[in-house]
Protein backbone atom coordinates (compact mmCIF):
# COMPACT_ATOMS: atom_id res chain seq x y z
CA UNK A 1 0.00 0.00 0.00
CA UNK A 2 1.33 3.41 -0.96
CA UNK A 3 0.09 6.34 1.11
CA UNK A 4 1.32 9.86 0.67
CA UNK A 5 1.10 12.88 2.94
CA UNK A 6 -1.17 14.80 3.09
CA UNK A 7 -3.61 11.94 3.53
CA UNK A 8 -7.17 11.82 2.30
CA UNK A 9 -10.02 12.46 4.72
CA UNK A 10 -10.92 8.77 4.51
CA UNK A 11 -7.39 7.64 5.36
CA UNK A 12 -7.16 10.08 8.27
CA UNK A 13 -10.55 8.96 9.57
CA UNK A 14 -9.42 5.32 9.51
CA UNK A 15 -6.31 6.11 11.57
CA UNK A 16 -8.37 8.18 14.01
CA UNK A 17 -10.86 5.33 14.39
CA UNK A 18 -8.07 2.83 15.15
CA UNK A 19 -6.38 5.03 17.76
CA UNK A 20 -9.60 6.15 19.45
CA UNK A 21 -11.12 2.68 19.33
CA UNK A 22 -8.14 0.74 20.69
CA UNK A 23 -8.86 -1.33 23.79
CA UNK A 24 -6.67 -3.50 25.97
CA UNK A 25 -7.55 -7.18 26.36
CA UNK A 26 -6.55 -8.95 29.56
CA UNK A 27 -4.55 -12.12 29.08
CA UNK A 28 -7.31 -14.35 30.46
CA UNK A 29 -9.48 -13.27 27.51
CA UNK A 30 -6.86 -14.24 24.93
CA UNK A 31 -7.23 -17.55 23.10
CA UNK A 32 -5.29 -19.76 20.73
CA UNK A 33 -1.74 -18.54 21.43
CA UNK A 34 -1.95 -16.57 18.18
CA UNK A 35 1.17 -14.77 16.92
CA UNK A 36 1.15 -12.18 14.11
CA UNK A 37 2.82 -13.08 10.83
CA UNK A 38 6.45 -12.12 10.22
CA UNK A 39 5.33 -9.39 7.83
CA UNK A 40 2.88 -7.97 10.36
CA UNK A 41 5.50 -8.07 13.11
CA UNK A 42 8.01 -6.30 10.87
CA UNK A 43 5.54 -3.46 10.29
CA UNK A 44 4.59 -3.27 13.96
CA UNK A 45 8.19 -3.33 15.18
CA UNK A 46 9.18 -0.69 12.62
CA UNK A 47 6.37 1.41 14.01
CA UNK A 48 8.10 1.25 17.38
CA UNK A 49 10.99 3.14 15.79
CA UNK A 50 8.76 5.97 14.54
CA UNK A 51 8.68 7.98 17.75
CA UNK A 52 10.24 11.17 19.14
CA UNK A 53 13.86 10.37 20.01
CA UNK A 54 15.75 13.48 21.04
CA UNK A 55 19.44 13.12 20.32
CA UNK A 56 18.78 10.01 18.21
CA UNK A 57 19.86 7.84 21.16
CA UNK A 58 17.56 4.91 20.29
CA UNK A 59 16.94 3.96 23.94
CA UNK A 60 14.29 1.30 23.28
CA UNK A 61 15.28 -2.33 23.72
CA UNK A 62 12.83 -5.21 23.33
CA UNK A 63 13.04 -8.94 24.07
CA UNK A 64 10.57 -11.17 22.20
CA UNK A 65 9.36 -14.31 23.96
CA UNK A 66 7.24 -16.85 22.08
CA UNK A 67 6.95 -20.56 21.34
CA UNK A 68 8.61 -22.88 23.83
CA UNK A 69 10.23 -19.89 25.60
CA UNK A 70 6.91 -18.69 27.00
CA UNK A 71 6.29 -21.22 29.77
CA UNK A 72 9.78 -20.85 31.31
CA UNK A 73 9.28 -17.08 31.30
CA UNK A 74 5.88 -17.45 32.97
CA UNK A 75 7.48 -19.70 35.56
CA UNK A 76 10.08 -16.99 36.20
CA UNK A 77 7.30 -14.42 36.69
CA UNK A 78 5.68 -16.80 39.16
CA UNK A 79 8.93 -17.34 41.04
CA UNK A 80 9.52 -13.59 41.37
CA UNK A 81 5.92 -12.97 42.44
CA UNK A 82 5.88 -15.70 45.08
CA UNK A 83 9.32 -14.75 46.40
CA UNK A 84 7.82 -11.44 47.45
CA UNK A 85 4.50 -12.95 48.50
CA UNK A 86 4.82 -16.47 49.95
CA UNK A 87 1.05 -16.52 50.55
CA UNK A 88 0.25 -16.03 46.87
CA UNK A 89 -2.96 -18.07 46.38
CA UNK A 90 -2.26 -19.69 42.99
CA UNK A 91 -0.10 -22.70 42.22
CA UNK A 92 2.45 -22.43 39.42
CA UNK A 93 0.13 -24.29 37.03
CA UNK A 94 -2.88 -22.17 37.99
CA UNK A 95 -0.85 -19.01 37.45
CA UNK A 96 0.40 -20.26 34.08
CA UNK A 97 -3.15 -21.08 33.02
CA UNK A 98 -3.95 -17.35 33.16
CA UNK A 99 -1.52 -16.89 30.26
CA UNK A 100 -2.56 -19.98 28.29
CA UNK A 101 -4.03 -17.95 25.43
CA UNK A 102 -1.11 -15.53 25.07
CA UNK A 103 0.81 -15.87 21.81
CA UNK A 104 3.88 -13.85 22.71
CA UNK A 105 5.45 -11.49 25.21
CA UNK A 106 7.51 -8.41 24.38
CA UNK A 107 9.59 -7.18 27.31
CA UNK A 108 10.61 -3.52 27.11
CA UNK A 109 13.69 -1.84 28.53
CA UNK A 110 15.26 1.61 28.24
CA UNK A 111 18.97 1.75 27.49
CA UNK A 112 19.63 5.10 29.17
CA UNK A 113 22.64 7.06 27.98
CA UNK A 114 24.21 9.90 29.94
CA UNK A 115 24.41 13.31 28.35
CA UNK A 116 22.21 16.29 27.67
CA UNK A 117 19.06 14.22 27.06
CA UNK A 118 17.45 13.57 30.44
CA UNK A 119 16.80 9.93 31.44
CA UNK A 120 13.08 10.56 31.77
CA UNK A 121 12.96 11.82 28.17
CA UNK A 122 14.58 8.59 27.02
CA UNK A 123 12.04 6.56 29.00
CA UNK A 124 9.24 8.59 27.41
CA UNK A 125 10.60 7.67 24.00
CA UNK A 126 10.39 3.97 24.91
CA UNK A 127 6.85 4.49 26.22
CA UNK A 128 5.93 6.06 22.87
CA UNK A 129 7.34 2.99 21.10
CA UNK A 130 5.16 0.77 23.26
CA UNK A 131 2.05 2.83 22.52
CA UNK A 132 2.74 2.70 18.79
CA UNK A 133 2.92 -1.09 19.00
CA UNK A 134 -0.32 -1.26 21.00
CA UNK A 135 -2.07 0.77 18.31
CA UNK A 136 -0.61 -1.30 15.48
CA UNK A 137 -1.41 -4.67 17.07
CA UNK A 138 -4.99 -3.44 17.36
CA UNK A 139 -4.93 -2.19 13.75
CA UNK A 140 -3.92 -5.67 12.56
CA UNK A 141 -6.71 -7.29 14.56
CA UNK A 142 -4.77 -8.63 17.54
CA UNK A 143 -5.37 -8.31 21.25
CA UNK A 144 -2.68 -6.64 23.33
CA UNK A 145 -2.20 -5.81 27.00
CA UNK A 146 0.51 -3.74 28.65
CA UNK A 147 1.81 -4.47 32.16
CA UNK A 148 4.39 -2.38 33.96
CA UNK A 149 7.35 -3.91 35.78
CA UNK A 150 8.43 -2.79 39.24
CA UNK A 151 12.05 -1.71 39.10
CA UNK A 152 12.80 -3.35 42.44
CA UNK A 153 11.78 -6.71 40.94
CA UNK A 154 13.68 -6.33 37.68
CA UNK A 155 17.04 -7.89 38.59
CA UNK A 156 15.97 -11.55 38.26
CA UNK A 157 14.29 -10.83 34.91
CA UNK A 158 17.35 -9.04 33.54
CA UNK A 159 19.52 -11.93 34.62
CA UNK A 160 17.11 -14.49 33.15
CA UNK A 161 16.80 -12.64 29.82
CA UNK A 162 20.56 -11.97 29.71
CA UNK A 163 20.26 -8.23 29.19
CA UNK A 164 22.48 -5.39 30.36
CA UNK A 165 22.09 -4.85 34.09
CA UNK A 166 21.95 -1.09 33.52
CA UNK A 167 18.87 -1.28 31.31
CA UNK A 168 15.81 0.23 32.95
CA UNK A 169 12.76 -2.09 32.95
CA UNK A 170 9.65 -0.58 31.43
CA UNK A 171 7.28 -3.58 31.47
CA UNK A 172 5.93 -6.04 28.93
CA UNK A 173 3.29 -6.53 26.27
CA UNK A 174 1.16 -9.63 25.92
CA UNK A 175 -0.16 -10.39 22.43
CA UNK A 176 -2.84 -12.78 21.24
CA UNK A 177 -6.36 -12.98 19.86
CA UNK A 178 -9.39 -11.90 21.83
CA UNK A 179 -11.91 -14.52 22.92
CA UNK A 180 -14.60 -11.96 22.14
CA UNK A 181 -15.00 -9.05 19.78
CA UNK A 182 -13.05 -6.12 21.21
CA UNK A 183 -15.64 -3.82 22.72
CA UNK A 184 -15.43 -0.07 22.50
CA UNK A 185 -14.49 1.51 25.80
CA UNK A 186 -16.11 4.69 26.99
CA UNK A 187 -13.45 7.39 27.22
CA UNK A 188 -13.56 10.64 29.17
CA UNK A 189 -14.32 13.77 27.19
CA UNK A 190 -11.05 15.44 26.22
CA UNK A 191 -12.51 18.84 27.12
CA UNK A 192 -12.07 17.99 30.80
CA UNK A 193 -8.30 17.93 30.31
CA UNK A 194 -7.59 20.66 27.74
CA UNK A 195 -8.01 24.40 28.11
CA UNK A 196 -7.12 27.46 26.12
CA UNK A 197 -4.64 29.90 27.58
Molecular structure report:
By secondary structure, the chain is of the alpha+beta class. It has one domain (24-180): 3-Layer(aba) Sandwich (NADH Oxidase), CATH 3.40.109. It contains 6 helices and 5 strands. Strands 1, 2, 3, 4 and 5 form a 5-stranded antiparallel sheet that branches. Helix 2 (38-47) runs antiparallel to helix 5 (119-139). The longest helix is centred in the middle third of the chain and has 21 residues, at 119-139. It is globular and about 55 Å long. GO terms for molecular function: oxidoreductase activity. Pfam families: Nitroreductase. It comes from OCS116 cluster bacterium.
Keywords summarizing the entry:
5 strands; Nitroreductase-like; NADH Oxidase; 5-stranded antiparallel beta sheet; 37% helix; single chain; NAD(P)H_nitroreductase; 197 residues; 6 helices; globular; alpha+beta
What is the fold's blueprint, element by element?
Layout: H1 9-21, E1 30-31, H2 38-47, E2 60-66, H3 70-84, H4 92-97, E3 104-110, H5 119-139, E4 143-147, H6 155-161, E5 168-178
Domain Nitroreductase: 36-177
InterPro entries: NAD(P)H_nitroreductase, Nitroreductase, Nitroreductase-like
GO molecular function: oxidoreductase activity
Concise structural overview:
With 197 residues, the chain is α+β, with helices and mostly antiparallel strands. It has helices at 9-21, 38-47, 70-84, 92-97, 119-139, 155-161; strands at residues 30-31, 60-66, 104-110, 143-147, 168-178.
